[in-house]
Backbone:
């Protein structure tokens, strides 16, 4: 009995709970249905609200605007100062560049001359002078990396000029020795050419028979004069020592050759005078057409032989006269 009552009590308690759940579900469904109705009727509500608002008129008003253009920049004074500063920096850069170039020139000359003194210039300076000059080059090299590290441009220029006083003399000996023999050969070739012309003149060659006695005399005198000059140059060249300054220079030899050629070549190349052609014979009088008809036609063949007279038949020979034996028998 107690269990039945308890079960009945539980059943009675669960009923009120089920009723509450049903009420809540009904409320939720009602709320959803209200929201749907609001959504469906939303556009109509908006249209009705727009109808309620009064229509407004728009009016366009143009207001003039003042535009002021302002540009940032330098004033004339500031611009001038900036240009001056730039020019000053350019000048400073140029001074630094020139100074470094002058310094590098000294350094390059030291290395170059030291190398040449042991190669192609070795025979063009005496041993004692060579030792002194090499010592001066080493001293200059040490100076460049010590006291002469940051000197002015003119200091480097003066230092290079001092080194060149000795170095240029050595280079001159080398270049003169290289070009001396070639210059002497050219002078000798000019002398030989004029001497051959004199030989042809002595042999009465018709190529030079138009030259006057004065021209021939000038050629002979200049040939003898410059042959002496050539011999003197050859003797000096033979006695020239490599480690001494040149006794004659290539420029002196070329100058003498030009002087010789300017005196002799105009005579040697003098053209022959033109021979005037024989005078043209005067025109023969013209023959009229009537005279041409009357005159017989002559053969125009220059090689035609003149017409020979016709030979007459010889008379019959006397038989007695023809046979001399018959005459003797009579």
Residues:
């Amino acid at each position: 009995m107690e269990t039945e009552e308890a079960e009945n009590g539980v059943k009675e308690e669960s009923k009120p709970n089920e009723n509450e759940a049903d009420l809540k579900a009904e409320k939720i469904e009602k709320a959803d249905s209200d929201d749907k109705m609001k959504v469906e009727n939303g556009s109509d509500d908006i249209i009705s609200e727009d109808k309620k608002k009064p229509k407004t008129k728009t009016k366009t008003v143009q207001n003039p605007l003042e535009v002021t253009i302002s540009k940032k920049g330098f004033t004339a004074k500031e611009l001038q100062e900036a240009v001056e500063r730039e020019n000053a920096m350019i000048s400073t850069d140029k001074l630094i560049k020139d100074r470094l170039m002058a310094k590098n020139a000294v350094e390059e000359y030291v290395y170059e001359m030291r190398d040449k003194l042991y190669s192609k210039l070795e025979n063009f300076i005496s041993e004692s002078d060579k030792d002194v000059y090499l010592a001066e080059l080493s001293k200059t090299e040490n100076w460049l990396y010590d006291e002469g590290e940051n000197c002015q441009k003119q200091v480097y220029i003066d230092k290079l000029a001092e080194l060149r006083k000795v170095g240029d003399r050595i280079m001159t000996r080398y270049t003169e020795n290289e070009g001396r023999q070639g210059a002497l050969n050219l002078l000798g070739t000019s002398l030989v050419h004029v001497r051959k012309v004199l030989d042809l003149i002595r042999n009465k060659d018709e190529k030079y028979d138009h030259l006057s006695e004065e021209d021939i005399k000038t050629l002979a005198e200049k040939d003898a004069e410059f042959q002496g000059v050539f011999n003197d140059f050859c003797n000096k060249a033979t006695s020239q020592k490599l480690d001494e300054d040149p006794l004659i220079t290539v420029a002196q030899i070329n100058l003498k050759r030009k002087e010789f050629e300017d005196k002799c070549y105009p005579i040697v190349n003098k053209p022959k005078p033109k021979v005037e052609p024989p005078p043209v014979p005067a025109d023969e009088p013209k023959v009229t057409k009537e005279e041409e008809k009357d005159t017989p036609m002559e053969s125009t063949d220059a090689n035609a032989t003149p017409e020979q007279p016709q030979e007459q038949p010889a008379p019959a020979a006397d038989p007695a006269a023809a046979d001399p034996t018959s005459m003797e028998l009579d």
In short: Confidence is low (pLDDT under 50) at residues 1-16, 298-330. Residues 153-202 form the longest helix (50 residues). Residues 191 and 223 are 7 Å apart (CA to CA).
